[in-house]
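G., before I forget:
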Amino acid sequence: MKTTAFLVFSVLAALATAICWLVWKLREQMTDNPVDDLKCDILLFFATQTEREQLERGAAELELPFEERNDAHVGTYYSLGTIGPNRVRAVKTRMGSFFHQGSASQAIVLLAASSATSIIQVGMAFGIDRNAQKHGDVLVSQWLFPYDYRIIDHLAGQQGQVDRYNIDYSETKRFLAKRSLLSLFEQERTTGRHEFAIHFGGMLSGGSRIRSQLYLRELLIAVTGGEGPGGYIGGEMEGVGLLAASKRAEPVWVIVKGISDFADDQQRDEAEAHRPDACLNAVRFVLAALRRVEELFAE
Amino acid sequence: MSDVDSYFKIDKRERDSHPLIRLLDVQRGEPKFGAAKVQIIRPRVALGFEPAQLSLQFFDKQNQIYDYRTESWDAQLNDALVDRGILAIDEPNEIERFGLGLGAALERPESRYGDGFFSAVLMLVVDQSPFAKTEPVRELRPYISTNRPHEGGHSADDCNLMIQAVLQDRWLELRRKLKYEQSHAERILAGALAYYLDERFSISDGRKLGWLKAH
């Protein structure tokens, strides 16, 4: 009888301990004042599970926290604590800029909720030149070109020829990235030691998953008006959404992404194979740059 | 090289002038011209603002508006108008104008020192300035939280000086170029600083959503 009572007591005690531990863990994740905890200087945006995993890995390499938090208003976000002088939080957006929780809506909402003054979109992108770039190289956007914003004119066929259309980008403007973030990354490119190349230049941004080199070449010709890359280094899908969050003259964003593919018929296989390294390199570059600010100001 | 010399023989005043400044100079020579004033057009939208516009308005001697030109906000154009002593149409417009001007002028230190560091030093400067006690800044202050900057090196002092210089330049513009009386200039600069802080830290938007809590 005594043994049974002891067993029941032990099980109940273990159960109570487990419940207490669970409650404590939940309380730990649900901060007392979530919006205060979300307050930060820099928001890192990522869009996919791989990007999240590599962000966590990159943070671990620098012994930075990567703590999941939940907020009633904005949902799940991750705290990377304070890196140098910057309080850094990371948020997942939906892939692309469209739809609920796409980068556009997340950027608007999270800037208001966090009082952040900068957004860095990290992750993977396509490169545009296999000869000059490699998988895993990191792209930093000096400017962004929203290629979905264009005029498509009808061209009536002359002398029995079929009707065609013309894509006109004459009213589409480049959007410059935030200067202070570019300075930060230029500093890192100069002083940091990385095993991958870093390219600064223009990024094409839009809603398409491009798997055709022919389309990409035509797009570049339409955008630049010439045969060469015209300063463009790659393209991606989320950056264009960040334009919704700030005035053109006072941008709050920059895009830093690793090359996972080259937007051609090998895109699927290459993206699958190179996605983790591409994301990790972008994350390493961003976090190293943020960490270096601390050293600079401590000198 | 003589060709190049003659090619660049352009009136420097004309070269430096924005088309609106040239228009202002022309209007000032008109017999009916009484005054020119600036209006800032920047309606609030659900979150944030529409892009800012600057309207230069011309008034006759009976203070009736007879012409105007509206352009996208341009900090250099605004500086040129301030240099020529052109006031805004009223105090709220002057506050908005100087708020936008502060944002443009503070871009340099922000670009040099980066987000977190600049924000931290900015708030140190604000807290130690006479503006900390003014109503518009005091009202916003509880909603702004920043880190403390690293104070072991010279960077915090350098950043501090750059920010103070920007504030001082705006003060001198108000007092010397626009000839505002001290109390009026104080109200405008305090309002402009609050306008800048509100936008920088997304305070109005956060409050609109009911998400910001005072510290």
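The CA atoms of residues 102 and 196 of chain B lie 7 Å apart. The radius of gyration of chain B is 20 Å.

More on Monday.
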